[in-house]
Specification:
This protein is α+β, with helices and mostly antiparallel strands. 19% of the residues lie in helices and 31% in strands. It has a single domain (7-152), classed as Roll (ph1033 like fold). It binds a DNA duplex through loops.
Length: 159
DNA sequence: GCCAACGTTGGC
DNA sequence: GCCAACGTTGGC
């Protein structure tokens, strides 16, 4: 029984990996790895499905906000970077027989012509409850409601 | 660079 | 299981 498509917001520091980096990736597709937070891990491992929609959010930068749209093309699987001693994401707690951390693959869909900034998001009454706008919420992977998704897509101009 | 808020660690 | 200390996140 196909489940309804779910919506997510995923944060990335554009200095590390931006929406343009995703666009330029092979097939526009990249592994989302390095998530080291249990609540975010649970989403990746248990709830992400191929076809789910993603808001690509730029964080820790001059103009934080929504930068584009992506789609999940591979559901959660053990994060290989956790097994790699040379990776900065290496975590000896995780091994292939008992993986702790999970990745998904996401594919570029489109970029916003302009970043939808936090002030712009905060100015939309429909987004009052959006997690990313709440102070103290720092989940790097978080669910978005269908109505939040719709409001944002209607607001954005796309490249 | 500051700092508030959060998550994790580790002693007890 | 408590909780203080520490490290990290992330907006400003």
């Amino acid at each position: 029984m196909p489940r309804r498509r779910q919506y997510w917001l995923m944060k990335s520091e554009p200095d590390e990996f931006s929406i343009d980096d995703l666009r330029r990736s092979k097939n526009g597709t990249a592994r989302w790895d390095g998530v080291r937070n249990y609540q975010a891990r649970n989403f990746l491992r248990d709830d992400f499905e191929a076809g789910d929609a993603v808001l690509f959010y730029h964080s820790s930068c001059d103009s934080p906000g929504i930068a584009g749209e992506a789609v999940v093309v591979r559901k959660g699987y053990p994060d290989p970077s956790a097994f790699d001693p040379d990776s900065s994401y290496y975590d000896p707690k995780s091994d292939p027989t008992r993986p702790v951390w999970y990745s998904v693959d996401v594919k570029f869909v489109r970029a916003c012509r302009n970043i939808i900034t936090r002030p712009a998001l905060a100015a939309m009454p429909e987004l009052k409850t959006m997690l990313v706008l709440k102070r103290g919420i720092r989940l790097s992977v978080q669910p978005v409601t269908e109505s939040e998704w719709r409001v944002i897509l209607n607001h954005a101009e796309w490249v």
